[in-house]
Amino acid sequence: MERKDNNQAKAPQGEAARILTEFLEVAISCIIFLKGVYPHGAFERRRYMNVVVHRARHPQLRDYIHSSVNGLLPFIQKGLVERVVVIFFDNEDFPIERFVFKVNLNLSYGSKVEQSDLEFSLRSFLIKLPVSESLTKLLPRGCRWEITAYFRALPEASTSKDSELIWIPTDTKQWQQPPLITPIKSMNSEPLGVQLYLEHPSLSEPKP
Amino acid sequence: MLKYGGRFENYFSRHHVTHIICSNLPDSKIKNLRSFSGGLPVIKPTWVLESVAANKLLSWIPYQLDQLASETKKQPKLSAFGFKSGPVLDDLEESISGQAVPQSGIATLRTSCSLEANIFGKAECTEEVEECHSVSDDPFHPNAAESTDQAPTYCMENHCEVELDAAVVGQSDAGYHSHISPCQDPKSDHNDCLEDHIIEESSSSKTIRPSTTGHSTLSDANFVENYFKFSRLHFIGTWRNRYRKRFLSSANGFKDMNPSRNAFATSQKTTIIHVDMDCFFVSVVIRKHPDLKDKPVAVCHSDNSRGTAEISSANYPARNHGVKAGMFIRDAKALCPQLVILPYNFDAYEEVADQFYDILHKHCNKVQAVSCDEAFIDVTDLRVEDPELFARAIRTEIHETTGCTASAGISGSMLMARVATRIAKPDGLCYIPSEKVDDYLHELPVKALPGIGHVLEEKLKKKQINTCGQLRLISKESLQKDFGVKTGDMLWNFSRGIDNRLVGVFQESKSIGADVNWGVRFNDLNDMKDFLLKLCKEVSLRLQGCGLKGRTITLKIKKRRSDAGEPVKYMGCGDCENLSRSVTLPMATDDVDVFQRITAQLFGYFHIDARDIRGAGLQASKLESADRNIRGHEKYSIRSWLVSSPARKSSMGKDVSEHMNGAGKGDQLYSDIGPPVQAKGSFSGGEAHVVHRATLPALHELDVGVIESLPPEVLSEINDLYAGELISFISKKKEKNAGNNVMDEEQSLSNPLVPPNKDFVHDAAEKIKSSEKEDEQYINKMIQGLPETSGSVTALLPETDSLMPSSLSQVDSSVLQQLPEELLADVLVSLPAHRRPDFMSNDVYLDHIRDQTGAIDFLPSNNLWVGNPPRWVDNFRLSSCQLLNRIAVLYNKSSPRGQFSSVLQLIMSEYPLDDGGDDAVNCLCELMKQYIKLKIETDVEEIYTCSCLLRRLTSRSELFLQVYNCIIPHLQAAVGETYGGDLNICFIE
């Protein structure tokens, strides 16, 4: 099992997955900053891929983002993860806004990953994010948020090391109606394709 | 000047600068002499010249600057020179000049210039520059230098202050070390550098401060240095560095011998011996006093029997009385009144530690040093018949050589060898064969295992685990669950005596720092700042001593808790809050000034009262080797590379090379010690500083072929080093080779040599990637100039074809993609005419790369987007509908090409929009549908942009309204299918 993992890490997909998780960690931090769930003082300016980004100062917040995204790494490598979603929801667990990262990892891609190409493409997300604030909804007070991952298939029961046992079922409610989608950014740089779009409740959605 | 050991400093630094040399000073500086000179002597340049002529260091007193001399005469008591009081200095100078200075050709006179830009405000900088010009008659000007045949040609043109380092002369003076001594005195080790630095600093004050040893930061100006000088922990810490330097070669040696050794395969047969000196710090001190051997002895830095000094080590008789390390002396004396307290003897420790390792290395080449008195050796490869006999021999030899005893443990792994040594102590030997490992471990308390400290022990105790036997009963999984994967793994392995670590892995230090938590008391913030500066210096010196640079700087402060009283331990830190802040720099550094700036900043974050500070520590982590320092290293490696290339004879530049060689000798000294890099984008001084460290090879030693293939930037840099001689030299050489005398030197000079390949375009593109507009213009110019340049190069080198690649397929397309459109066009235009067709076909290739859609299969029904340009473009062009024709034209104008949104964007700017018939609507609908199908999976952003643009167009044109209405249901269905939602289409600007 371990050897297999090692091989996977060396494969182009493994490399791409590693870059992707790193990117997701940064991008999610940026979204949280953007949405103003926490006071701006809770973030510090950092540079990632030569773009100014914001990183959480609070160790717990940082750790939550870090561990959730890194917990996904083995599944991303296997191409199991379809979407990673940052959900903002109100007191009644009713989602208000969802930032969806749709991940598409080409498992049959064989040649070497150009890390710089990939990073160049991913960087555009970080540039686009701050200017997309107008597309997003103003959150009511007392909002909470979570990171949820959607899998293409249920992962097989794995050893303790793999899953890290950090994933818990989500309590967030589902929308009754198909949501409204506002794309923010898409990119496709073999073997990895990532799309970021917003989901808002449809206008016909019954109000809770 | 260099030849005699003088050195020019770009920046004023109390460490390096000893004399300030100038011929004139502005009034403002005379008035404020102390802040200008920092208490250093300000001397006329003639002093240097005459010292050189006399071949000894003359007293600087007669050469004092006239303006100052008159002043000091008026006020003889007010010595302008800080803590170097006049009479003492006189004595010093006399004793120095009395010495026979020259040491057989070794440079002794050392001068340094300082452009003091960093200590003066910006306003003064300009003044400084003016001053530089005004001293153009400076005797160190190249012309003058040549006449005296001493100074190298690259001596600074605009230096204004030259400072002479008296310390170097003091080299021959016994009690007076200098920090360049390592390179002058082959006996002293490089790693002594660190100590030397410290001594050097204190030595200047030693003369006037006869052993007034203060005990806190308040009373002792040199507290930091002394603190570390008398610290045992510091000794142990720096010992590692010393050891590494001393035995590194042998350590590397065995690594190479056995690169692929597998721990699992050989763990059964390995034999590891752990050797540990018995109470090292005591036994070394008493080895010369046999009478003390059986008496209780402890080592401590103070022998005040009522004091709160902690015992650092106690011998076995003392331990029998209950005396332990870490105990206050007064408690130890209470336990054992006859206890003898001795001070440290660091020289002896060093000597014994070296002997100890000499013996180990002699017997076995696989030695892993744990500490100065403890090591593992792996004797597996020696095929020793009886390891016990072998260990006994080592122990005997250690005892005979050092007079101290050592214990040894033998077993199959490092873990068990250590356990065996514990059993063997004191002065014993223990062998645990693999079959007995379990017996030994069964009753072993968990605390005895390495890696288990207080915290872990407490945790285990809570679970009723006290011995390894109990630990073994717990499954690996539950251990991992309770203590984490790594720790659990370790516990599980260790409790079974499994240890796969290999002997010989020398752990690199992860951080270098200095902590002081004893005797720290401040009255105000200024005290603290002074103290921090000293810490910075200390850390910087330690880094330099190890040849490392740190990227992360951490400042730790111990703050007295508000409710804590005066600590029990005299001058101790007591009950403290530990605060720490760190910052990571983009570039690794070991520069004091940078450290100082950062620490001041970090300290500012704490907002604490200086009186509450009980300790401070500064650490540099994320260490990088100083060699990797870009400027110095790049130059250095190029240089060594050049030197190693075969020397060629040339009549040209002979005298230049002679100069270089002459200078090189003096320079070599500096390149060895690698002085701290101080140049930070300063005046032209920066260049000179570099030259200091890199000895240039003579021009005729350079391999022209190598030089030619260097990238242009590097070439021009090297050319600068040779003061522009290089290019002309190369061109001359080439003339000879080609037998072509048509081209004169001037012309070739004006045509900088360019490596004739696509790298150039590549480089240009690279530059654009990282640069601003002005760079673009520059590149534009360069590229436009390409054809001509390539022409001349072709003339020079008939064998190389041309600068431009023969086809675009040779070009790195990713580079071309990075180019701005205009520039790309320029590059394409500059292609020779006969290659145009080539390019046309390659345009397709380029676009192909650009939209990356090649992977998708096209069905015959939706093949409108196949090909490049896509098929619809031709269809539309041939269509009878004007609008469609227009769209086809716009496609070719659009950028990025291949994206329909960019076409729509262009349509937006068209006015008026003429309407087409139903055919046009159908065509566009079909086109859009296929486009949606193509992009929906991978690029919903593009679909979204198209839809929004389309929606905007609906207000302007009936036709687009129809298209929009036709498309939207299709689009929403596709989005719903793929993303489970509806596209939220709005207007976008």
TrEMBL record, chain A:
Q: Can you name a GO cellular component term?
A: nucleus
The HORMA domain covers 14-198
InterPro entries per UniProt? HORMA_dom (IPR003511), HORMA_dom_sf (IPR036570), Mad2-like (IPR045091)
Sorted alphabetically, which keywords does the UniProt record give?
A: DNA damage, Nucleus
Task: Spell out the subcellular localization from the entry.
Answer: Nucleus
Which biological process annotations from GO are given for this protein?
DNA damage response; response to UV-B
Gene3D superfamilies, A to Z: HORMA domain
Protein name per its UniProtKB record: HORMA domain-containing protein
The organism named in the record is Coffea canephora
Automatic annotation (TrEMBL), chain B:
- Gene Ontology MF annotations: damaged DNA binding; deoxycytidyl transferase activity; DNA-directed DNA polymerase activity; metal ion binding
- Gene Ontology cellular component? cytoplasm; nucleus
The keyword Nucleotide-binding is assigned to this record: no
The domain of life for this entry's organism is Eukaryota
Where does the UniProt entry say this protein principally localizes? cytoplasm
Question: What residues does the BRCT domain cover?
Answer: 1-65
Annotated SUPFAM superfamilies: BRCT domain (SSF52113), DNA/RNA polymerases (SSF56672), Lesion bypass DNA polymerase (Y-family), little finger domain (SSF100879)
Enumerate the residues binding Mg(2+).
276, 373-374
Keywords on record: Cytoplasm, DNA damage, DNA repair, DNA replication, DNA synthesis, DNA-binding, Magnesium, Metal-binding, Nucleotidyltransferase, Nucleus, Transferase
Q: What GO biological process terms does the UniProt entry carry, in alphabetical order?
A: DNA repair; DNA replication; error-free translesion synthesis; error-prone translesion synthesis
Q: What is its EC number?
A: 2.7.7.-
Q: Where is the UmuC domain?
A: 272-453
The places in or outside the cell where this protein is found are:
Cytoplasm; Nucleus
Q: How is the cofactor bound?
A: Binds 2 magnesium ions.
Q: Matching Gene3D superfamilies, A to Z?
A: 3.30.70.270, 3.40.1170.60, 5' to 3' exonuclease, C-terminal subdomain (1.10.150.20), 6.10.250.1490, BRCT domain (3.40.50.10190), DNA polymerase, Y-family, little finger domain (3.30.1490.100)
Q: Which InterPro entries match?
A: BRCT_dom, BRCT_dom_sf, DNA/RNA_pol_sf, DNA_pol_Y-fam_lit_finger_sf, DNA_pol_Y-fam_little_finger, DNApol_IV, IMS_HHH_1, REV1
Does the record bear Cytoplasm in its keywords?
Answer: yes
User: Which cofactors, if any, are listed as required?
Assistant: Mg(2+)
> Catalytic activity, per the record?
DNA(n) + a 2'-deoxyribonucleoside 5'-triphosphate = DNA(n+1) + diphosphate
Its biological purpose is as follows:
Deoxycytidyl transferase involved in DNA repair. Transfers a dCMP residue from dCTP to the 3'-end of a DNA primer in a template-dependent reaction. May assist in the first step in the bypass of abasic lesions by the insertion of a nucleotide opposite the lesion. Required for normal induction of mutations by physical and chemical agents.
Q: Which HAMAP family match?
A: DNApol_IV
**What is stated as this protein's family in its record?**
Belongs to the DNA polymerase type-Y family.
Task: Specify the protein name.
Answer: DNA repair protein REV1
